[in-house]
Amino acid sequence: MMKKIFLCILMVLIGLLVLSLASRCCARTLSENEYLSLRKKMVAEQIEARGIKDKNVLEAMRKVERHRFVPKDICHLAYGDHPLPIGEGQTISQPYIVALMTEVIRPNRSMRVLEIGTGSGYQAAILAELCKDVYTIEIIEKLGKQAQKILSELYKNVHVKIGDGYKGWPEAAPFDAIIVTCAPVSVPQPLADQLKEEGKMVIPVGKAGVQHLVILTKTKGRLIAREILPVRFVPMVNSKGEKY
Ligand code: SAH
């Protein structure tokens, strides 16, 4: 009798262990072919269908393996039409927003681009496919290090820095374009200063709940702004976690 009870408990414990291991290693791991068809579907239905036309941007979105940039336990959700949590209270943007922000800077192989808010590294990877050099800054050390690891395995033209992106990257400035993926209430002056003449910056501006994605073009030293759509991004913060 005792032996049977012991065996039962043992079986239950082994079952629980297997379940927890399976969920941690992404229970619903898909094959590379399945991921590829999810990516093609994502580009066709979420991105092309909403008006993104730049062939190179579409190609980069079909190529970069978004599932490698999200936490393992949710990698099966990587190609969904929504943002996803990436840890530390931060999120990877919805695929369409990544494509839109990339298209509006009109990327090409000769450009040096600055990104503020590395997060998972996914936006930086898309830029690395399209531009000459990508400089990206993340304020949360853990995220920055994680992104740096995966980006250095995949690309030679991405430079990751851990620090406060409000100040930009003066040593590498000026930039042909700047993409900001966290929201300050107004455009940081150092970023405006580090943008080249005729360069474009795309940035979510405003407080939580009332942010707009804005495209700024530097013309004769001044920034000309055009609002494109209401958005929801995490706030830009300083090293003490205070909002800008
Ligand atoms: N581009 C990212 C999305 C990042 S979410 C991706 O493709 O996954 C926004 C990121 O901005 C968060 O990781 C957050 O930590 C970071 N952030 C917030 N304030 C910042 C600042 N002052 N400097 C640099 N990064 C900042």
Class from secondary-structure proportions: alpha/beta
The distinct ligands, each listed once, are: S-adenosyl-L-homocysteine
String of helices and strands: HHHEEHEHEHEEHEEE
The counted number of beta strands is: 9
Number of helices: 7
**What is the 3D form?**
globular
Q: What is the topology, as strand order, of the major beta sheet?
A: 5-4-3-6-7-8-9
Helix content: 25-40%
In CATH, the homologous superfamily of one domain goes by the name Vaccinia Virus protein VP39
| CATH class value of one domain | Alpha Beta
Any low-confidence stretches, pLDDT <50, length ≥5? 21-25
How large is the radius of gyration? Answer: 21 Å
What CATH architecture of one domain do you see?
A: 3-Layer(aba) Sandwich
Q: Report mean pLDDT, rounded to a whole number.
A: 93
Cα(first) to Cα(last) distance is 67 Å
Task: Specify the biggest β-sheet.
Answer: 7 strands, mixed
CATH topology of one domain: Rossmann fold
Q: Beta fraction of the residues?
A: 15-25%
